[in-house]
Amino acid sequence: MTPYPELLGESTTLIASRLDLSLECINYSGHHKSLLSPASLALSNASTAFSALTIASTATAVAPYVISDWEKTTYYHGISLDAPELLYRSDLQTNPFPVPKGRHPHLPTKTVYGVFNTRLNEVWDDVAPQICQTLKARGIRYSAVKAARFVSHGEDGKNSVGPIVIWIATHPNTTTAENAHNVSPDILSLLETNGVKEAVVEWYEAAVEKLSGPALLRVTDNTNPTYYLRRTLTAALGMPIATVEREEADAQGSVAFFFHENKDKCGNPSNKVFAVSNCHVLRKNTTDAYEFKGAGTPPQLVRLAGFHRHQRLLDESKATIGGLARDADLLAREIVALEAKPESKDPEEAAEDKSAAKIKREKLAKVQKDIGLLEAFYKDVNSGWGDIACRNIGHVAWAPPISVNVEGRGYTRDIGTFEVDAVRFKAQFKGNVVDLGAFCLIFLLITLSNKNNLQGPSLLPGNSPTCSMLTVAIGRCSSSLPIASSGSMATSPASSCPILIVSIATASPASSS
């Protein structure tokens, strides 16, 4: 069958009209050649050759793996601000992608979701490695293999949930649609063998990027021009945090202190470090208990600084640079004025002018250097921390409901913990330190009552300087979690780790027990 019958029909009609022949005679010229003159017969043969040429020239356009430019660019419209282009999908022939019609067409949109409560969830641990092995055997350079479901949003407001999708990302410019078409049946067969029916394999190109962002910054001396600004991005106590769950409300809070989980709830050694904050900061629903269930559970992400706090950091950085630029301009003018001033006949005044010019040149050099450091700092903050997904620093681990009368003792409990991302914290983590500016850093050591395990091979603070410290001795965990005055204890049933509010004492690291 001719791939484009309407095109061939139009061409044939045009030829027929020019020679005053009927369309029927040309279409049936092979059966009624006696009705045609020699010239008409030649035209008929030309028409037949044109038809064959049309079929041959368009054969590749309908190959089973070829996708239109429209579908490539709009298939994933809506799943993100910068949606990827579709490379290939296994249901290309059986599930055509609609092309909007009319003067004001509706552009289809989609939302991507996880896969839950399906047969694939039961066999994923076995199937996923086999899919990866299949891709490697076929020479496919993949960057990610995921399971997803897409919800399509119709023009009438109705939503439809699509099938289970094995979503494969390949390194850019390494895999063709034909490669994907050839490998997809093997993946579908593997799924069928494991009881996963009617799944689809979809392909796109994507480079692997580290979305966790750079490591937290170190606390510097106050002579560093970025000293005040960088405090938002350090691991000192009071660091501003915001959760994805409360992003719409722009709810933000801070970290009270960190603690180390010596053993998990099963009694196994643990190197995890948790941060303590408020339940109302970490959770939208403060009336139900929350505990992270581990692998397979969507984590409630915690971010370093919400949108407005990060924007404030950028604004303060620009304002600081602007202020120094004005200082530099003023110093430059003063230097020019001093150098242009006629040398005084008074030796004391002349010496004073030379000294002033020298001092101002040194100040100008320092200001210009500071401007360079601040501009580099602003650039790094904007590029490395600008994307809010690059400010993920952990996930909520435990958050009991807020209570105003814990165990009938009048305590108000509003607490929650989140596990910190060790990769981001480890390089500059000092433990529970408070940045007091001109004063020394205060360290809060949280230890077990019978053992100081703060020097183990984990993400733990090192020996602190000999200065004021917050030290405590605490007991084992219990089921309660009262938060009130200093010295009260709080415990987490999610781990065998104590959490508490402590009082100030003066000691050296050697005297901590």
Number of strands: 21
Radius of gyration: 35 Å
Mean pLDDT over the residues: 75
Percent range of helical residues: 25-40%
Q: What about the largest sheet? A: 8 strands, antiparallel
Shape: extended
End-to-end C-alpha gap: 87 Å
Amount of beta strand? 15-25%
Helix/strand/pairing category: alpha+beta
In short:
The chain has 513 residues and is of the alpha+beta class. 32% of the residues lie in helices and 18% in strands. Strands 7, 8, 9, 10, 11, 12, 13 and 16 form an eight-stranded antiparallel beta sheet that branches.
Please outline the helices and strands:
Blueprint: H1 5-18, H2 23-27, H3 38-58, H4 69-74, E1 86-89, E2 109-113, H5 119-137, E3 142-153, E4 159-161, E5 165-170, H6 177-193, E6 200-205, H7 227-230, E7 240-243, E8 253-254, E9 257-260, E10 273-277, H8 279-282, E11 290-291, E12 301-304, H9 307-340, H10 347-384, E13 392-399, E14 403-406, E15 411-413, E16 416-420, H11 422-425, E17 432-434, E18 442-445, E19 469-471, E20 489-491, E21 498-500
Parallel strand pairs: 5-6, 18-19
Antiparallel strand pairs: 1-6, 2-3, 3-4, 3-5, 7-8, 7-12, 9-10, 10-16, 11-13, 12-13, 13-16, 14-15, 17-18, 20-21
Describe what this molecule looks like in 3D:
By secondary structure, the protein is an alpha+beta fold. The chain is 32% helix and 18% strand. Strands 7, 8, 9, 10, 11, 12, 13 and 16 form an 8-stranded antiparallel beta sheet that branches. It is extended and about 100 Å long.
